[in-house]
What we know:
The protein has helices at residues 3-29, 32-36, 47-76, 81-102, 108-133. By secondary structure, it is mainly alpha-helical. The protein has one domain (3-133): Up-down Bundle (Four Helix Bundle (Hemerythrin (Met), subunit A)), CATH 1.20.120. The longest helix is centred in the middle third of the chain and has 30 residues, at 47-76.
Amino acid sequence: MSFELEAVVGSVLILFALLVFQGTLVPLNQGFGWGLGSRDGKAEYTAMQGRASRTVANHVEGMLLFVPLIMIVEMGGLSSQLTIAGAALYLAGRLAFVPLYLFGVSYLRSLVWGVALLGTMLIGYEVVMAMVAA
């Protein structure tokens, strides 16, 4: 398996961990009855639940850019040092972003979010250059 695909697997594992964490917060804060019930009524979420929800959404949004680009790299045989570096930056950025966002660390979390975005952009650059060269 290529490093780029390993980064996709890593991103999926991060999402899985986030979903487990987010789901665990419900019974801890709203109780099992509400969590296992129909959830027709609106519950007041804690600050951590709000950050967990936003972190999940942010991670999924990042994956929506990253994963298709990696699939194009894999299917097109476009793997290069640039795509490997991009995948490494993306994964490292996402790994750092999650706890920083969950614990409300300002500024630094935006910096590491930018690292992940830069990684995605490097992969996108390689894909676009391959299209132009074709």
